[in-house]
Specification:
single chain, alpha/beta, 41% helix, eight-stranded parallel β-barrel
């Protein structure tokens, strides 16, 4: 028989401290006894909870106080648990959010305008997934977001692409012209001059001589050697060049040396898309320690905040991140299963069925030649295997023509589903507008030409997933980490198991409420109380 009772150790020395000789005083009508009533009481996070034991029976109350005298003696107590208490309050002050939380970007506008608008309208921040989008598309999205939620929090992702520096420069120009004051900088191994430009162009001197930061950078990374570059001021040589180019003033260059390059660093653990597959419990404390070392050296007026991303998909993982010291938490690929995301219904349905192990690593389209990989869904798609084969061919041969004829025919018929030359013609048209330098390199080098054609497949595969391209389902590139399976486990048997019921704001609030609920349970457990599995699943949400 399953035991649903709450267990108290026979000899518990962890009863409420310093309350010897005190008794609980309150309304008897506030005391509850049944598991359902106790669950509801524990779920009322804005109220305290008192737990008593008498003659082997459990009692709980959400009101009362301790007084001198005789009466019920509590064996456990937990105060109210406001959601705002998790993380660093300066994050909320900087970005105008209700909680220390934001929804990270997914490229190709999978983190759509609708998602960002929905979050911003409800006092949360989302980052528009600008990676892979044209300048016109990004500009239209910014206009829509700014018109829909004026004065509300939002961010725009700035995805580093070392193959197309001209596009990065034009994107930064657009961000500055459009008055975008928060960017989420992703996939940067070193800060580029354009990223420094965005930061420095938003620096001003206040009335008391202080540095006023108008353009905020949230750097998403997973390596200490990358983090250190954002924990210090912008490089002097980049600032000097920007002054020479008249993109910033000498004063702004001077002010840039007084503040860190980033306001925040999001430590990205094992996640969907670009990832080093780092465990959060290892990498987050390491970068927190690094931040403290650099802060002791530079003494910035506002230390760089360190947040956590990657694997944040359940109340338990969210609480773990905060307990590790995260100033804020970030959800990512799990949001693409929400109704507001730019993913197709087919992709959302696949994601809702994913298990924790249904993921694989595959070559990244934006850093294909460098061998960088992204984590993707392998359930219901053959993208990971097909993309890896293309990369193997690229590394083994110097030109498409060197590949054995049988293998070329196989790739054209089963993967590319077009002739190599017809794709090359499309690449010529595309890059003649987007980045002519890419064409110059490819025309001089057959290997670079092959890389552009293979990147055509890698780039379009994520778009096919977003648009629901018929006939290309097995080629869908769906960015996904183990967190998606964890989310599906957590929501199993609830309305949230269905993609149609997953809304980005509702999901965020339920995760945060669940985090606070588990925190309350952990506090009570440290007082010697053991809760049954039925009370571990999360709060009762009306």
């Amino acid at each position: 028989m399953t035991d649903h009772s709450i267990v108290f150790p026979r000899h518990s020395h962890n009863v409420i401290p310093d309350h010897a000789g005190l008794a609980w005083q309150g309304e008897k009508s506030s005391i509850v006894f049944t598991p359902a009533e106790i669950h509801l009481l524990l779920s009322r996070l804005d109220q305290p909870v008192w737990i008593f034991q008498e003659n082997g029976r459990l009692f709980c109350s959400g009101s009362g106080q301790l007084v001198d005298g005789q009466g019920l003696s509590p064996v456990g107590w937990a105060g109210p648990v406001p959601l705002e208490q998790f993380g660093d309050s300066s994050f909320r002050q900087t970005y105008g959010t209700r909680f220390n939380y934001y929804a990270g970007a997914m490229a190709n506008a999978i983190s759509s305008e609708d998602m960002v608008i929905s979050l911003g309208a409800n006092g949360l921040m989302g980052s528009f997934g600008s990676g892979g989008c044209s300048l016109e598309r990004i500009g239209a999205a910014i206009h829509k977001i700014q018109s829909a939620i004026p004065g509300k929090p939002y961010a725009v992702n700035l995805l580093n692409n070392p193959n197309e520096p001209v596009l990065e420069q034009k994107t930064v120009e657009l961000l500055l012209q459009s008055g975008v004051h928060v960017v989420e900088a992703s996939a940067y191994l070193i800060p580029t001059i354009n990223l420094v430009w965005y930061r420095a162009a938003g620096l001003f001197q206040g009335g008391q001589g202080e540095v006023v930061i108008q353009n905020h950078i949230i750097a998403k990374l997973s390596r200490k050697e990358v983090a250190i570059r954002f924990l210090q001021p912008a490089p002097q040589e980049a600032l000097d060049e920007l002054v020479t180019l008249s993109r910033i003033t000498p004063l702004q260059a001077e002010l840039a040396l007084k503040v860190p390059l980033a306001d925040d660093i999001t430590v990205e653990a094992d996640s969907g898309g670009h990832t080093d597959n780092r465990p959060l419990v290892s990498i987050l404390p390491a970068i927190l320690n690094l931040r403290d070392e650099r802060q002791a050296l530079h003494r910035f007026s506002q230390p760089v905040r360190i947040g956590a991303a990657g694997g944040i998909a359940t109340p338990a993982s969210m609480l773990a991140a905060f307990m590790l010291g995260a100033a804020y938490v970030v959800t990512g690929s799990i949001n693409q299963a929400c109704t507001e995301s730019g993913a197709s219904s087919h992709t959302k349905n696949l994601l809702a069925q994913a298990e924790i192990t249904d993921v694989a690593m595959a070559p990244a389209g934006d850093m294909f030649e460098m061998g960088v990989k992204v984590q993707v869904l392998k359930r219901g798609t053959m993208f990971a295997m097909r993309a890896q084969k293309l990369y193997e061919l690229y590394t083994r041969y110097q030109a498409w023509e060197e590949i054995p004829a049988a293998e070329r025919a196989k790739q054209e018929s089963q993967v590319l589903k077009r002739s190599f030359e017809s794709i090359w013609e499309e690449c010529e048209k595309f890059f003649s507008v987007r980045d002519p330098h890419q064409l110059e390199r490819a025309r001089k080098s057959p290997k670079n030409k092959m890389a552009l054609v293979f990147r055509w497949y890698l780039g379009l595969s994520s778009r096919w997933s977003a648009t629901g391209e018929a006939g290309r389902e097995m080629d869908y590139q769906i960015w996904c980490g183990p967190s998606m399976g964890a989310l599906n486990d957590w929501t199993h048997g609830t309305p949230l198991a269905e993609p149609a019921n997953r809304h980005v704001v509702d999901l965020a609030e339920k995760l945060l409420a669940g985090c606070a609920y588990l925190y309350r349970l952990r506090l009570l457990e440290m007082q010697g109380i053991r809760f049954p599995a039925s009370l571990q699943k999360g709060p009762v949400i009306p």
